[in-house]
DNA sequence: CCGAGATTGACAATCGTTCTCAACAAGCCG
DNA sequence: CGGCTTGTTGAGAACGATTGTCAATCTCGG
């Protein structure tokens, strides 16, 4: 990979709309629902464009993506590396930093001779509120 | 959900074939490719059946499932809770136990009032051999 | 051995995502 | 400013993985 030969990215009304809509949500959202929100809000972006915009944002590190139930969910995120604690009922999300886990991952991987690491660490559960509703 | 009212599971030729084929693979495989292997091996299982069998195995804790590139991959696994270190080139997989990570997860989740936890911790990378080929 | 009911398999249906392609617009240069 | 080059858009078709349908079949308890 000759690395950073990032496709020249233009600023368009649609791209901004997606970025904004994504930032407005506290939770992880699917491309589909984001598209609906935008349409509901009067915007006329196409579904394909939303997919493309989200993929671009994720690629640029402006959004986190995670797979859940067969679909990909996105969420605006802080630029630093982190993981998530997600309520599987209401979707509330807490960003986690875990230097210890990073260290552990790097260590065990090294022990097995693995390089160029990448990892996913996501914790799902029920937040206090949702748990109380049971 | 009245919890553990596990659907009465019968032992059938197809189910056994799937279990066996899965156990024969060291790597994570998709339902589709497993189905092809079975057909290639002379078995006549239907694709839908392979999906159902794999879902059942995963539910019973006999197999691990992970999503990758839009499809779900399965792999026979040890019955104890563990995570994976996977070579993204050759698919080689190492099962990891990490009490420390479990503890960490439980702790941060508790700090935020989350309960009924579940988590995914997967490390992807290039194993020594594959890395050497570059 | 029998019968109830779980299981199967071929195929249709669904659902999220990507592709296609002509129309469009952002940034650039003169 | 006006035109040009090229990335971008949108509608719909195409796609691939997965799930549903339903009659035929097979398991297993009795």
UniProtKB/TrEMBL annotation, chains A, B:
GO terms for molecular function: DNA-binding transcription factor activity; transcription cis-regulatory region binding; zinc ion binding. This is Zinc uptake regulator, Fur family. Belongs to the Fur family. One of its GO terms (cellular component) is cytosol. Homodimer. It comes from the Bacteria. Zn(2+) binds at residues 87, 90, 127, 130. Fe cation binds at residues 81, 102, 119. CDD domains: Fur_like (cd07153). Keywords: Cytoplasm, DNA-binding, Iron, Metal-binding, Repressor, Transcription, Transcription regulation, Zinc. Its cofactor is Mn(2+); Fe(2+); Zn(2+).
